[in-house]
Amino acid sequence: MEPRPGSATAQAAPPLSSQERAAPAPELPAAPPAEVPDPTAGDEVFDRYARLVTAVLGVPVGLVSLVSTTGQVFPGAVGLPEPWQQTRCTDLSHSFCQHVVATDTPLVVSDARQDQRLSGNLAITDIGVIAYAGFPLHDADGVAVGSLCAIDTTPRTWSAHDLAVLSDLAATASSELVLRRTVTEAAAARDSELAALAKVSATIESVGALGRIALSLSDAESVEELSVIMAEQGQAALGADGGAVAVPASGDPGTLVSYISTSLGEDTRAQYSHLPLDVQLPVTRAARTATRVLVPDLATARACSSAMEEVVRTTGCQAWASLPLLARGQLLGVLSVGWREAQDFGTDQLELLETYAGQCAQALQRLAAREAERASTQQARAAAAAERLSAQRQASLVAIAQALAGAERHEDVLAVLDAQGSALLGASGSGLCLTEPGGTHVRTLATASFDADLRAHVQRVPADFPMPIVHTATTGTAHYLEDLATTVAAFPGARDLYTAAGVQASVCVPLTDRSGLLGSMSMAFLEARTWDVQERELLEAFAAMTGQALARIASHAAEQTALAAAAGIAETLQRSMLTPPPEPDHLEVAVRYAAAADHAEVGGDWYDAFVTAEGLTSLVIGDVTGHDMAAAAVMGQLRNLVRGIAFTLDHSPARVLAAVDRAAAGLGIDTVATAVLAQVEQSPEHRAAGTRLLRWSNAGHVPPLLIEADGTTRYLEPPSDLVLGWDPMTQRHDHEVVLAPGMTVLLYTDGLIERRGVSLDRGMAWLAQAAAELAGGSTEELCESLVALVGDHLDDDVALLALRAHREDAPRPRAAGPARVPDGLERARRAARRDRL
């Protein structure tokens, strides 16, 4: 007989030298695929494939091998002699599978001792490999990485059936590698998004705490009160176990006065209330050098000095951070924070510490300035108003951070910028300018306060467009433009745009994150104005938070794209299993699959229709418990088991389902599923009468619906057997019904008849009535209309399969479409008949 396309056949090969036999093929991968983390430890799924090879093909050894330039490993292995079964690996000197991977084609050998390519391979003498059949396994990139192989210890001629089964199993095992890659990537994307959200939440909480402290600091009337607030409230905001603020003693520049949090105990507060600058401690070193001092753990603390060891013993804190509080180059004090646990002082933690230290320095500076101006009542009131405004602005930064945390689009960020710019600084309008990849153009978003034509004109412009906001976005240089004359002097090309918008003054601040320059933000003012130091600091802080929000939006968009891609791969994989049905002459088959409206994931519903090696049309409908990628994967395994066993074995539906039950249990497929398997038969007596026999077995599934030619309907409701996967010893039963020409059998999953608040009986009654009303159309119209009737009310996925028998003494109806069977079916049937002989 002629080999089927893509089949493997043994071929003679020219003699190879000993060096050629030992050398690894250059096409081999450098290492096993990451989807199998520890192949030598064994893998339950791939061990099942190896057991299935030995069971179905009747060979003593079945292997799932992964081959690389370093050797071969067996994540799936059954029947190897020791020590190979235990170690699950060999050198390439013992590898037949390397030839499968190197050529990406099957290798089939009846007697390796007679094969010039393999006769010198040590696997023959050491492992007893005589007959070998191996098919390539491919990873998610389509690269051959291993082989699913059957091994016999005596010469053997492999049948076409053997090779077909092995080819199908290899394809399914390759799908396992693809699924693992998909699940791993989706999980990684999900974990990354959750970590990012947690980080944003923690940052918002810390910023909120610092904002509340800012309000408290603004009300302090003395250095002592201010220091107590900074030490007590600061430790909570920073997640520390203790804190202290040390300031130079009045009249004694060589001594620090420390205000220590109560959490460190009264003994500590008394012992360290006054510190000479020459004591070797982090706080005194920070005061002497005006630099940050970090002590991350106990070992570092002990290495500092004996005085530091005493601090650890007294306070119980092993990690410390001391930060100088500076204003215009002058030391105002030192902020110290302690933790009982070791700290790694990562970038985020250090940024928070520096932010709080800057806030404390500003508070001390404001207090010093206020005390110096108390002589003048007018000056004191002005200072108090300025402090209140500063505190309000810092509290506003907290509100800005909270508002930006909810921004999901660039337009949301612009809305926050517009609202806060108007409230804080009296801006008449705002804009965002974002750089595009490549750097040749920028994209500008402006608020509705600007004319629509103007907004459209600057929406996307070259990177050298003569506008301050564009210059800042592309160079990172901030611009504080006090009036129109100043603007035109620096940017002559901006005159017309500023005049048309009625803008006199503007400010443009760069937007950055850790990756670099993202763009710029701008505020416009209808009157000329200037910006003091606090307003500039406020704008810089606003810009920093805006940059973080833009970076978060970009990161979230990338993660959503990755998740959507992973979900698309999984859905494509599931739908690839829902293949078009065959339609032998005078049998009309139609199928449909509809996903639930509120489910973004794939599920476990499936249909299948195929012609067996005996020429019987088989119909399958099933539903695996669950609605995720795991359910879809198990569905694929069960579908292939049913299809493979039913095609190969000349058994009734009940015996096929019983075999599937046993195979699933033996292979460790731990799931529960409902299913109906039906076969259309025609004995000589039925052929003479122009009828057919439908034989089916039901494993806990909803009953099939029989539709007579005149539209009468009835359910095929003999008692169903247990679901698949419950008990491999379950006794299953066949049932029969005669199909006259014009009769239709409808198989379906429960999603078609189940509704919230509606009983199953009512759902079945609805289906029977709807099918009766639709009986006059084709099977395609029947399935399409039923799905349309359900519409958007699907609570679960729906799979449908309809079969109609037509008269055999007349041409096939045009509405049924052309007859359709697989191209290789006749060859497979001849091979099956030959094997039986």
What this model shows, in words?
- It is a single chain.
- The protein has 837 residues and is an alpha+beta fold.
- It folds into 4 domains: 18-183, Beta-Lactamase; 219-372, 2-Layer Sandwich (Beta-Lactamase), CATH 3.30.450.40; 412-557, GAF domain (Beta-Lactamase); 577-836, PPM-type phosphatase domain (Phosphatase 2c, domain 1, 4-Layer Sandwich).
- Helices cover 43% and strands 22% of the residues.
- The protein is built from 25 helices and 28 strands.
- The strands form 5 sheets. The chain has a 6-stranded antiparallel sheet with strand order 3-2-1-6-5-4, sandwiched between helices. Strands 9-8-7-12-11-10 form a 6-stranded antiparallel sheet, sandwiched between helices. It has a 6-stranded antiparallel sheet with strand order 15-14-13-18-17-16, with helices on both faces.
- Strand 5 (131-138) and strand 6 form a beta hairpin.
- The chain is elongated.
- The chain starts with 17 loop residues before the first helix and ends with a helix.
- The relative contact order is 0.06.
- Residues 1-26 have low confidence and may be disordered.
Describe the structure concisely.
With 837 residues, this protein is of the alpha+beta class.
Number of helices: 25
Q: Beta fraction of the residues? A: 15-25%
Major sheet summary line: 6 strands, antiparallel
Q: What's the number of structural domains?
A: 4
Q: Output the radius of gyration.
A: 39 Å
Q: What would the principal axes of the Cα set say about the shape?
A: elongated
Distance between the termini: 14 Å
- The helical percent reads 40-55%
Task: Name the quaternary structure.
Answer: single chain
* CATH superfamily grouping of the largest domain: PPM-type phosphatase domain
Give the second-level CATH assignment, the architecture of the largest domain: 4-Layer Sandwich
The name CATH uses for the topology of the largest domain is Phosphatase 2c, domain 1
The poorly predicted ranges are: 1-26
Give the helix/strand class: alpha+beta
Average pLDDT figure: 84
Q: What's the arrangement of strands in the largest beta sheet? A: 3-2-1-6-5-4
**Tally of strands:** 28
- The CATH class of the largest domain is Alpha Beta
